Amino acid sequence: MTPSDDPAAVPPRGQRVRDTIAQLRERILGGEWPVGGRIPTEPQLVAALGVGRNTVREAVRALAHAGVLECRQGSGTYVVSTDELAPVVARRLTDDRTAEVVEVRRAFEVEAARLAALRRTPDDLAALDDALAAREAAWRGGRVDEFVEADAALHTAVVAAAHNRMLAELYASVGTALRRTIATAMGDTLEPERHVDHARLVAAIRAGDPERAAVEAGAFLEPPPGA
């Protein structure tokens, strides 16, 4: 009998799930799947980790419950944190506190834009161009939900270009609240007067102008009237 044929050589289900969680965490901490990025699909994880679908599903569910991963309907599963601090921030912002969320976004995004102008790489600039183009295409398409995702993706790309891992983790933790504030600002339809041009923000980052980038990032992040 070979070791693989020996039932005693196969870890019990609970242990397999724990081992799979550890493997997923290791890849996240190692940067293979960065904060804000999407992890491989379930079949791909099954093949890569050598475990069954149910084991992968339970491990992903556990990490989602812990606030490390976020499952987005129709889009995939994304890394939103590498530790327990960011989920605490996310839970703090689950209530209807639009003004506070905007203030937190401003604190994050203004500094991120400033750092991005100083640290951006050619790959970052390409990602920003792609995200800006996708945002404008989503606006022209007229679907609020698609525009919200595209707008959030552009802001996330700016934060990524800052190359500050802690900032990226904290920003990812407010992803749900971020989308809610964008959706609230847009309303039920994409009206022309609500469109905000982000091309100047990207241009300031490209030009390596941290002060102008910070100004552009903060210009559209004012608290709602009466807040």
Automatic annotation (TrEMBL):
Residue intervals of the HTH gntR-type domain: 14-82
PROSITE patterns: HTH_GNTR (PS50949)
InterPro entries assigned: GntR_C, TF_FadR/GntR_C, Tscrpt_reg_HTH_GntR, WH-like_DNA-bd_sf, WH_DNA-bd_sf
Keyword ATP-binding annotated: no
This protein's UniProt keywords: DNA-binding, Transcription, Transcription regulation
Pfam family, any one: GntR
Single annotated GO MF: DNA binding
Protein known as: Transcriptional regulator, GntR family
Organism listed in the record: Micromonospora nigra
